[in-house]
Description:
19 strands, Rossmann fold, 23% helix, 8 helices, 2 domains, six-stranded mixed sheet, disordered C terminus, seven-stranded mixed sheet, alpha/beta, 340 residues, 24% strand, Metallo-beta-lactamase, Chain A
Amino acid sequence: MPLISFTDKGLYCEPGRFYIDPWQPVHKAVITHAHSDHARGGSQAYLCHRDTLPLLQLRLGPNNYQAVAWNEKILLNEVTVSLHPAGHIIGSSQIRVEYKGEVWVVSGDYKTEFDGISGQFEPIPCHTFISESTFGLPIYNWKPQEEIYRDIQNWIRNNEVANKTSVLIGYSLGKAQRLLKAVEEVTGNVYVHGAIWNVHETLLQAGWKLPAVQRITPETPKEAFKGSVVIAPPSADGSPWMRRFAPYSVGICSGWMQVRGNQRRRNADAGFALSDHSDWNGLLQTVKASGAQKVYITHGFQSVFSRYLNELGIDAKEVKTEFGMEDEETQFENDNNLKI
């Protein structure tokens, strides 16, 4: 019996009697991060990183939560569990599980480049590693964050000259917070969709220092948007809600924008390949750094990535899960029943 099994409810550690990011209600859920494909309601008890706690409370409401710091060891029925930075979004963690000398690591979603807000990813040595592969193709090779930020800033400046509102599309938990850091150097006139506002307020109350924003309401005058920056989730793109910003220019912020055809299909004016996931090289480097003898590949380009690992002599296998069902454009706001 492996230390962690792949079941119809999710990743299950039988000796510890807990699940990791289960997609059905269970008695004990250990959560990597607060995106809705990894953190679902209905379980009796949750264990997460302390920065994830307020986000789970926002999403799932009152519950039996236990929050820990990174590297803090917790004993669950003789199984030692610790959480380590994953670099994906605020509070995102890898789950290290140790029992009788055997170590498994469940990465959840991760990003190896430090973004200044999500925690610095650290590779964890283990015998078995469970990895995502959202962008597990060689074509996905990210520019440094600073360079992407400069591209966004220059685009905003050009829109200001053209008297257009700059509308940046990025999901409300993770991408929106990074975009605020990118735009604060060029403007303090930032408006946000209601879903982003609720996450923003939750983080402020938890002690995070984020740039000031204004919530968009039906009462916000159209004149206020001229020359401003608007940050909105994917669900708003192309909707009647956008009409109030005219004339405007739309920039989509997603790793999928690495492929130019995706920008055309989304009918966007600009695309910025700003991702909260590792690129091809980041995935490879992480797997190698783990030293794992066995690797399981979950959501994304599983077949390509696992086949390549096997060609390198690393024992890799595809595993079907319900992670990534909403892909990188996770519409986190829908799970909150938030109003515009």
